[in-house]
Structure formats: structure tokens, C-alpha cells
Amino acid sequence: MPSVLPLDPPRRLVRALGSRPDSSLTSGWLTGLPALLERVLEHWELAPERVVSPGGRGSLVVLVRRPDGSPAVLKLAAPPASAAVAEAAALAHWNGWGAVRLLRTLPAEGALLLEQLHGEVSLRSLPDAKAMLEAASAARRLWVTPPAEHPFRTVAEHTSVETDTLRAHAPAEAHALVDEALELRETLVGDAAEALLLHGDFRQGAVLAADSERAPWLAVGPEPLVGERAYDLARLVRDRLHDLMASAGAPAATRRRINKLAEALDVDPDRLRGWTLYRAAASGTRHLASGNREDGEALLEFASWL
């Protein structure tokens, strides 16, 4: 079966993997990607249609046809393998409720076969107010009790590995902000009252249009964790950040967004504010560490509004 992989993988994927601390590992994965794609296509007897571009930042996504002619999406996740295992486990547990349906998986290859949604139509295609309403509805479906035996890290475990990056890469003028973010994290993980299955990277762009009786919008690309809902909502608060920064009264608009989301989903607004500040500061310092100064500084400015 001929490969559909272009001469070069999608640029977004190459850039994202090249900026990761484990880039030596992912560069080897990129080199072997054509052969990996061939193996999985042959194993599942899939007919490739096209590689999705710009695609994702941590996986190759290919539109395919199954042996019966039905459409599907093949996702090949970059290392570590544990990320694909966790994603597959979360999708299997949701079983199509609020999220894309998992059809098959090959954990050793980091391969997931998914139902095909409208990948070109996310909630970002809607006006922001409508997108936020739909996002709230989609998120509510995902927050369920995790299975008794699961591979998911907790929010406390996940965020504990970020503290060194926060301290090492925050610019001098942001040290007070980073100190506040770290103090907030300690408080929030210390008294969290919920242990629900979270999407982990929930945002408007991760919710796609679906031709489904289950729901008109379904989440994709989870980085699942177990923790409280406020952590999951915190990434959504800063959606369309550059548009927000260009508008008048952005800090006040951000605080209103926090209050609206907290009220709509019965989440403590103070906890949502705290996780929003922490996650923006953590993401900002990661961008600075990878050389992306523009986005890093924008995220730290956003965090300072809170």
C-alpha cells in the first residue's frame, strides 16, 4: 500500500517536536514516520486519502478509509508511548460521550483509529460568546469519574514537574508573578475536592463539529489528567488570546469570562482564577524556554491581569 506521507512532515509538527526537551527522541520518530505509517496502514487495511495539514503539534493525522469504505482518522502520536496510551484510555472510557469515538488502537505503535469529524470546523469558527456556550456544554459531558484502574496522572503530579521550568525561565520582571503562580498551585492541589477525568488541553480548537446524534460538537486530542474541573476550564479562559489582547479593557473582560464560566459550570471562581493564572504562567515560561518570546511574553502579560 503506497504511503501518503509528504516528502516532509507537516511543518507545525516538525517545529513543535523540535522545541521539546526530548527532541533527540522525537527526531528519530520523525525519521521513521514513513515506515511506521506504512506498517499501520497495512495492519488495519486502511486506504489513505491525505495527510491533514497543518495538523497537530504532537502527532501525524491522516484521513483514511476502512476496508468497508467508511471514513476514519488515523492518528500516529509522537513519543512517549504513555501519551498515546493515556489518550486511548480516556477516549475508550468516554466511549463517544462528549468526545470523538475510538475505533481501534495499537499502543506499541502510538496509533489510534478514530471516527472522522469535521476537522476543519472547530468552535473557533463560531462567534466567541456562542463558542463559549458550546464549549461549556462539551466540557460538562467529559467530567466523569475515571475508571478504577487507569494510566492517568493527577493534576498535582503533572504540575509538579513544571516548577523548575517556571523558576528557571521566567524573566526577572516576572519573578513575583511566578512566585504567586507557584503559591497558588500549592494551595490548589492541597485542597482539591474533586478527582474527575479531565481533557487536560480543553479549548475551543479542540472541539470539532460532528455529524452525530450524540452531540453536534465533540472533543478531540485529550491530554487526560485526574483532578478538578477548574483546572480543565483554565485553558479555555485564555482562548483567542491575541484577539483579547487587542481589545479594549482586556483584563476586565478576562475576569468577566472567568465569572461567566464559573457560574455556568458551578465552579468556584477563585479556584478558576488561580488555575488560569498558574497555567498561563507555566505555558508562558515554556514558550520562553523554547525560544518563542512573543507568545511567552503575551501569556505572562495575560497572567498578570489576574
Q: Count the strands?
A: 11
Unreliable stretches, pLDDT < 50, 5 or more residues?
Answer: none
| CA-based shape | globular
> Tell me, what is the CATH class of the largest domain?
Alpha Beta
Ends: how far apart? 53 Å
CATH superfamily of the largest domain: Aminoglycoside phosphotransferase (APH), C-terminal lobe
Keywords: Kinase, Transferase
Protein name: Kinase
Organism: Streptomyces oceani
Pfam family, one: APH_6_hur
Structure characteristics:
Aminoglycoside 3'-phosphotransferase, Chain: A, domain 2, 3-stranded antiparallel sheet, 306 residues, 5-stranded antiparallel sheet, 16% strand, 13 helices
Architecture overview:
This protein is an alpha+beta fold and 306 residues long. 49% of the residues lie in helices and 16% in strands. The protein has two domains: 106 residues, Phosphorylase Kinase, domain 1; 183 residues, Aminoglycoside 3'-phosphotransferase, Chain: A, domain 2 (Alpha-Beta Complex), CATH 3.90.1200.10. Strands 1-2-3-5-4 form a five-stranded antiparallel β-sheet, sandwiched between helices. Helix 7 crosses helix 12, helix 8 crosses helix 12 and helix 9 crosses helix 12. The model has no long low-confidence stretch (mean pLDDT 91). Keywords: Kinase, Transferase. InterPro entries: Kinase-like_dom_sf (IPR011009), NH2Glyco/OHUrea_AB-resist_kin (IPR006748). It comes from Streptomyces oceani. This is Kinase.
